[in-house]
Structures are given as structure tokens and as C-alpha cells.
Amino acid sequence: MSERTRFLWRAFRSRFRDHKAELSAILSYIQQGDLVCDVGANKRSFLYWLSKWSAHGRVVAFEPQRDLADYLTRICTDLPLQNVTIEPKAVFSETGSREFFVPKGHKPGASLSREGLSYAAVETVHVPIVALDDYFGANERISVLKIDVEGAEIGVFKGAERILRKDLPLLVFERESRHLGGRPISDVFRYLEGLGYRGSFIQRGHVFPVSQFREEVHQHNDGQWFWKRPGYCSNFVFTPAR
């Protein structure tokens, strides 16, 4: 299977099976001409739909793993997704450089945090990092922010506080207790609610208020590969409350 075919297969599998609810939330919010942002693009499939649905707009995708960033650049050239910019950087609360931990044989698990990676040997590299408030100008308006950063979510949000307060973009993100070293998942909920958001979580393709989320139930962490079990919930959608 070619790179192009594999990428499109992932995109359509996500849209109509794996991430149907998340992508439906984005589709209902996004408009042609919008500026949207994919933080932690990896080699997954949100990027295709962000590009198509924001046609005549702009998509900026951040992926700090150089080989994956090069892969996405090739795919965007080949398809072509002409409104996409690939940035080989990690996103965090400040701009500079930082250690980045890549599990050997499991690149989707790469993270700015070593916590939660005890299941694999890791390679440590240094990567450039950027705060979204530094990257985007004050006159640029972001409408959708998709985030998959394996435990660094609160850092991404703090580095985008100006954007969150001014633009109130739709937020679609992953958050898992296994990456947090004992910190509660709910800290990011409280932070976003303080900025004017209300939240939901996804369970088996359905959307529920985040007030019903229970870490001990929805992210039960008993046994090997528990995060791959049916009923495990790690994806959240936050919308402006006003």
C-alpha cells in the first residue's frame, strides 16, 4: 500500500469509525477560509479533513518528529493539500528547545514528558518548541485547535492563553491519566472552564458532558494495554460557553 493510499485510508477510517464524533464536532464548527491548527499531527488523519473543510483558509500542523514531519510534507505535496503548513516543532508553554522522549517502536507515544512511558525504552532527543501565542500574530484568528501531545496539554493551553481568551476556538484534545504522573485529568478541565469553555467527552462515539466523566471509571488502568480496551475514554471536546 502506498503512502498516499495508507494516509487516505486512515483519514476515512477516522471520519466514519474511529473519531466520528470528534470530526463531526469539527465539521459543525469549521468554515471555509478559517485558520486551524493541528498540534501533534503525527501520521494520523485529522489533517486531511482540517485541510478540506477549511478550504481557502490555512492549516498549520505541528509535528516534532522530523521523519513524521517529512512524511506529512510529502503527503501534502502529493495529494495535494495546498493550504497546509507543516512545522517540525513541538508546542508548549514557552518558545525555545526541550527534551523529547520517543518510545522505541511506538512513535505515536512520543512526548515532552517522560511520565507515562514506563512501558517502553525511549530515545531522548532535543526538539524546538513554540508557544502558540508566539507563533501566531495577535490579528490572526484560530477557529479550531486539535491537540494530541501525550500529557503536555496544559502546557499547550497555557502557551495559547491569549488565543483562547480572544478567539475562543473549538478545542478537540486527548488527555490521559497514564501520562500525568499522578496529576488529575480534571486540572485541565478547570483551567479551560475558567477561560469560558464547557466540556464534553467521547465514549463509544457518543458525546457526554464532562461533568459525568469519572477518571476511575472511564480510564480504568488495570492490566496491560488498558488504554486500548473498549470503553476507555481519552478524547474531549470543549466549546465556548458563550
Brief account:
By secondary structure, this protein is α/β, with parallel strands linked by helices. It has helices at 3-18, 20-29, 46-53, 66-78, 132-135, 153-158, 161-167, 186-194, 215-218; strands at residues 35-39, 58-62, 84-87, 90-91, 96-103, 122-130, 142-147, 170-174, 197-203, 206-209, 235-240. The protein is globular and about 45 Å long.
Secondary structure elements and pairings:
Elements: H1 3-18, H2 20-29, E1 35-39, H3 46-53, E2 58-62, H4 66-78, E3 84-87, E4 90-91, E5 96-103, E6 122-130, H5 132-135, E7 142-147, H6 153-158, H7 161-167, E8 170-174, H8 186-194, E9 197-203, E10 206-209, H9 215-218, E11 235-240
Parallel strand pairs: 1-2, 1-7, 2-3, 4-6, 7-8
Antiparallel strand pairs: 5-6, 8-11, 9-10, 9-11
Helix pairs in contact: 1-2, 1-3
Report on the structure:
With 242 residues, the protein is of the alpha/beta class. It has one domain (3-91, 138-240): Rossmann fold. The protein contains nine helices and eleven strands. The chain has helices spanning 3-18, 20-29, 46-53, 66-78, 132-135, 153-158, 161-167, 186-194, 215-218; strands at 35-39, 58-62, 84-87, 90-91, 96-103, 122-130, 142-147, 170-174, 197-203, 206-209, 235-240. Strands 3-2-1-7-8-11-9-10 form an eight-stranded mixed β-sheet, with helices on both faces. Strands 4-6-5 form a three-stranded mixed β-sheet. Helix 1 packs across helix 2 (20-29) and helix 1 (3-18) packs across helix 3.
